[in-house]
Amino acid sequence: MFMALVLLLAFQRSLSKIPSLRFEGRRCNYDNYSVSEGGYLRLADPCVRLVCRYYHKVLLVNGCPAPPNSSDPDDSPYAMYWPHCCNRSAA
């Protein structure tokens, strides 16, 4: 009985660390990030791209390694965000 209570408390504590995901006003709100329908956000830490599919109630998360041709030709050669951070995190 005591062991079951300890496991339940540990599970509840781990759930409290999961970032929230909400779909509101044609936006995907995840943790402290907000992405509009069809839009994306490229981050450096964590090294991911968030893509909002509001009408499907889906937030796509692309990590590393990045698919081929993922970078934007307008990206700075010194860019630190996804997918450029994949090369740095692999080193």
Structural write-up:
The protein is of the alpha+beta class. It has one domain (19-90). The protein has two helices and six strands. The strands form two sheets. Strands 1-2-3 form a three-stranded antiparallel β-sheet, with no helix packed on it. Strands 4-5-6 form a three-stranded antiparallel β-sheet, with no helix packed on it. Strand 5 (49-53) and strand 6 form a beta hairpin. The protein is globular. Mean pLDDT is 82; it is low at 1-15.
Offer a concise description of the structure.
This protein has 91 residues and is of the alpha+beta class.
Work out the number of β strands. Answer: 6
The rounded distance between the terminal residues' Cα atoms is 47 Å
What is the succession of H and E elements? HEEEEEEH
What is the count of distinct domains?
A: 1
Structural class determined from secondary elements: alpha+beta
Oligomeric state as shown: single chain
Major sheet attributes: 3 strands, antiparallel
Q: Judging from the principal axes of the Cα atoms, what is the shape?
A: globular
Mean pLDDT: 82
Helical percent range? 10-25%
Give unreliable regions as ranges.
Answer: 1-15
Within the largest sheet, what's the order of strands?
1-2-3
Q: What's the Cα radius of gyration?
A: 17 Å
Q: How many DSSP helices?
A: 2
The amount of beta strand, in percent, is 25-35%
